[in-house]
Amino acid sequence: MTISDQIDALQKRAADLKSSFEQSQQETNEQVKAHLSHAKADIAARQSAVKDKAEQATDHTKSQWKSMKADAAAKVQAMHDRVDRKRDEHDAKSVARRKALATRPCSRCTAASQPATQLLISAAG
Questions:
Q1: Taking a C-beta distance cutoff of 8 angstroms, is the pair 115, 125 a contact?
Q2: Contact between residue 115 and residue 104 where contact means Cβ atoms under 8 Å apart
Q3: If exposure means fewest CB atoms within 10 Å of the residue's CB, which of 29, 41, 111, 116 is most exposed?
């Protein structure tokens, strides 16, 4: 943009401001009050719209938060259930191993026909 274009734009803006000023001088008190009340009504409507939008956003955020909490709680519960199941499986395997060891003959003693638990019981008595 050249300097002459900038000067032309500035002159147009100055003329618009002068026209607006002259027009406002000619307005009556009632017209000013009407413009003012119209502006206040417009502001109130916009504030109401913004308030409604904010309430909707708040409700949406609360809903998302509840959903996230419920999802996290479900995942934690699933993890606890998995840990419990794995512990139960491990316990069952341990019991099976102990039973297998208890019924197996003792390799250190001479009485190969006696199970290890019977040897332990007889040694304790």
A1: no
A2: yes
A3: 29
How many Cα atoms sit within 13 Å of 51 on the Cβ side? 6
| Dihedral (Cα; 99, 100, 102, 108), 10-degree rounding | -160
Surface-to-core class of residue 110, CB atoms within 10 Å of its CB (0-12 exposed, 13-18 middle, 19+ buried): exposed
Alpha-carbon distance of 74 to 94, in angstroms, equals 30
Q: Residue 114: which residues within 8 A CB-CB, separation 6 or more?
A: 105, 106, 122
Helix (H, G, I), strand (E, B) or coil at 105: strand
CA–CA gap between residue 79 and residue 15 (Å, rounded): 74
pLDDT tens, position by position, 56-115: 999 999 999 999 999 999 999 999 999 999 999 999 899 888 888 877 766 665 554 555
Q: Using alpha carbons only, what angle is made at residue 76 by residues 70 and 82, rounded to the nearest 5 degrees? A: 135
